[in-house]
């Protein structure tokens, strides 16, 4: 396991060792001691979520929850767009990644996570260090200020009603500067 810094402070891109075998492959998706040795902060995972997506072009996010996340696909590939929503000089910074079974991301609390399935039959794992709650900051997936170059044209993407109503980064910025906590 090897961890690499990204342009967003605290976000780490992780290379996992995938061992081919006669039946397919094996990987240690999460091994706390090896990850810590590679420079990943200790993640005391309390919940492991797995999502299955039958089609390519399914998009979710942008959500910044009050917990740290460890993300990795088990099958298929995903395009991930992260947005720093923590107050400070990197507020609004965006970085994108393509992940397959041999990669993972460590995403600290306050960083918005979104993804788009690149292949049918994608299985995506999320380990978190706090139990799920509805508390989060959300941002419009298609906010022009973010300039996220999604891998499919918008008309080919499928997203939830809930994500369709997310505020823009400018609206989040105004709430933050006014001292309010965005919902």
TrEMBL record:
GO aspect biological process, one term: dTDP-rhamnose biosynthetic process
Pfam families reported in the protein's UniProt record: dTDP_sugar_isom (PF00908)
Source taxon at top rank: Bacteria
GO molecular function: dTDP-4-dehydrorhamnose 3,5-epimerase activity
InterPro entries: RmlC-like, RmlC-like_jellyroll, RmlC_Cupin_sf
GO cellular component labels: cytosol
Annotated SUPFAM superfamilies: RmlC-like cupins
Site (Participates in a stacking interaction with the thymidine ring of dTDP-4-oxo-6-deoxyglucose): 132
Family: Belongs to the dTDP-4-dehydrorhamnose 3,5-epimerase family.
The protein, known as: dTDP-4-keto-6-deoxy-D-glucose epimerase
